[in-house]
Each structure stands twice: as structure tokens, then as C-alpha cells.
Amino acid sequence: MDLPLHKKQFSAAVRPCPVCASTAEREVLYRQRFAAGPLGDGYAVSVCAACGAAFADGIPGQFELDAYYAERSKYTYAHADGAESPFDFKRFEAIADQLEPHLPSKAARILDIGCATGGLLAVLQRRGYTHVVGSDPSPACAEAARRLHGIEVRTATLAEHAKWTERFDAVLLVGVLEHVRDVRAAVGIAAGLLRPGGVLYGAQPDVEGFAACVNAPYQQFSTEHVNFFSTASLTRLLATAELAPVATWRWLVEWREGVTDSVVSGVFARSDAGVGAGAGAPAASEGLRDVVSRGALVAYVAQSAAGEAATRQLIEELVRTQEPLLVWGAGT
To answer: Residue 275 has what pLDDT?
Structure first.
């Protein structure tokens, strides 16, 4: 009998670089520790010496991650009966604005992988798109999407999409790639779902903006986020699936009042210029090397350390004065 997810122990074996697949030297910039949780007790925030991409090393395998998202998804918004917030819909509208110029017509077939409760698809549907479908590993998310928006959402892990025979004009990966261990395989599967002339849209946290959006120390190093993308590393990753950028953006989103985050997003299409024409092509292109992630993470770690030190100083002062207080905390 298999152990429950929270009882499993995970190996800290070296993880190949998720972008270039190198197992060569990597620099560890920070070791994140978790007091408790279903996905191990921490990981090493690392930078690949071969390509410069940043990622978490010493993490569970994809099977364990898939089980985690199926069993424990926090994206069902249970506190709101599954409904997304006005801040969510503002973000979805911005994504739709980026995507829409690259869709062939209102009859475009659109698949949102990892769609949670379907808010983005609901926005596209309201804009007149008639063929929208979602997928998510969480059955609860799929049920909420059907109930709230009347949208077809199928329960599936990303790997299970490899068996799908349907093809789409647009495949969306919004807030997905930062969660996936086997990310090269994931983008290959997603690209395989495209019709000729189709586009892939991706959006995920922007490592270059981490230091400008420190809402809490080390918050970007959560148990769930195992890849840290810049425009360069995202472009190089998509090149492994023979996709080249049509347009990219770096922009701010507001999760709730006063809490912002930086996002990197892009529309990618099949390359006709040779970039990404095979798994080995990106390694030969110096222009695709990530030269920003290391510096961005060093700055973010320094900002987080300063914030943590200020909090510790305040705690020590409260201990000294014995001032009564109520302590409250939450993890990401």
C-alpha cells in the first residue's frame, strides 16, 4: 500500500537543468527550508553554469508533484465557493489582451492547461470565443469551472495530454511552468497539441522582478515554485519545442490591494528560422543564454534577508520589553 503524500520522503538527487538539461556544475545561491509540508523539507535555489537558468534542486519527482496538485490544490478558491476575485479577473483581462491579436478568429479552438476554476476561459468566452476548453489535475477545480462558468474542464495531468488527439489554435500555460519538474517534456507535449499556425501562450513569475516585489521574505521560494524564469530562459525553453517568440512582455499584476508581483509572458509559434530546430539547437545559441537570473536572485535574497533581519530585531525588542502581543502567520 502506498504511503499518503504527507508521509513520503523525497530524494535530493541532482536535478538536470530544466531548460538545457545539463547535469554539469550549478551554483547554489540559497537553501530554502520548510518546517513542514507534503513536498519535502526544502530545496537548493540553483543557477545552471551551462545556460544561466535558475531552478530548485533537490525536489520531488513529477509523479509526487502531480499527486500533490490533484489532492491538495489551493486553486479551488474554497473560501469563496470557487469564485475568482476581481483582481483575478483584471489579470485575466490583461492576458486576453495579449493573446487576442494572435488568434485567427472567434472560432479559434483554445485549450487552457492548468486552468484552475476556469476564469480566464470565462473571460475569453465573454469576448465571443466559442470553442474554449480547460484541463486541470484537480477534480475539484474542474467541477468548480463547470458550475461557475459552464465551461468544459477535463481532469488531467500535463503528461496525460500526450494522449490527446485534438489540436488547438492556442494552448495556454498560465501559472503552470513554474510548478513542473519535467518542464522540457511539458512544453513538448503542449506544442504537440497545436494546429499548424497555432500559438502557445505562457505566463509565469518573472525572476527579474522578484527584488522589486518582496511582499514577504523568500516568498518566491515556495514549496510549489521549482523553476524561476526570465525572458531569456523562457525563450530558450520554448525553443526546445521548436517554438520561437512572436511577442513577450514583462508586467506587474496585483493579487490583492497593495500586493503585486512581476510576470513574464509571451506568445510563441513554430519557428521558420531554425531556432529550436531540435533539442541541441538552443545550446549552440549564445544569444539565448540567461544573463539576468543570477543577479536578480542575488538581489532578491539580499532584500529578503534584510526584511527577515528587521522582523527578528522587532521580535527581540518585544521579548525585551515583554509587551503582550498576538502572533499570526501563514505559509505560501
So the answer is: 38
Nearest to 55 by CA among 172, 182, 158, 238: 182
Q: What's the pLDDT tens digit per position in 78-103?
A: 444 557 889 999 999 999 999 999 99
Q: What is the dihedral of CA 204, 184, 331, 260, to 10 degrees?
A: -10
SS3 label, residue 223: coil
In the block, cell 503582550 appears at 324
Cβ distance 125 to 146 under 8 Å? no
Domains plus CATH for the chain? Answer: 5-71 (no CATH), 75-271+288-296 (3.40.50.150)
| CA distance linking residue 51 with residue 117, whole number of Å | 35
Predicted structure pTM score: 0.87
Residue 223, sorted as left (phi over 0), alpha (psi -120 to 50) or beta, turns out to be alpha
What CA–CA distance (Å, rounded) separates 230 from 53? 8
Return the pLDDT at 24.
Answer: 86
DSSP strand E in 22-65: where? 26-33, 42-48, 54-57
Could you please report the per-residue DSSP string of 126-179?
Answer: HTT--EEEEEES-HHHHHHHHHHH---EEE--TGGGGG----EEEEEEES-GGG
Q: What is the spatial distance between Cα 55 and Cα 57, in angstroms, rounded to a whole number?
A: 6
H helix or E strand, kind and range, residue 91 = helix 86-99
CA pair distance 184, 296, nearest whole angstrom: 23
pLDDT digits (tens, 9 = 90+) for 223-268: 899 999 999 999 999 999 999 999 999 999 998 888 899 999 999 9
Q: Which three cell numbers stand for residue 32?
A: 530554502
Q: Evaluate the CA torsion angle 284, 288, 291, 297 in order and state its sign.
A: negative
Residues comprising the chain, all counted: 332
